[in-house]
Amino acid sequence: MKQVVLNARKLFANSGGVYIALAVLLAVCSVSNEYFRNPQNLANITRQVSYSGIIALGMTFVIAAGGIDLAVGSLLALAGVLSILSMDLAPGSPALQLALAFATALGVGALGGAVNGVLVGAARIQPFIVTLGTMSIYRSLALYFADAGLVSTGNELYRTATSATFCMISVPALVMVLLTVFFTMVMRSTRFGRHVCAVGSNERVARYAAIPTGRIKFRTYLLAGLLAGLSAFLLGGRLSSISSSGAGLSYELDAIAAVIIGGTAMTGGRASVPGTLAGVLLLGIVSNVLDMWGISVNLQGTVKGLVIIIAVLIQYKRKDS
Question: What subcellular compartments does it reside in (predicted)?
Answer without folding.
Answer: Cell membrane
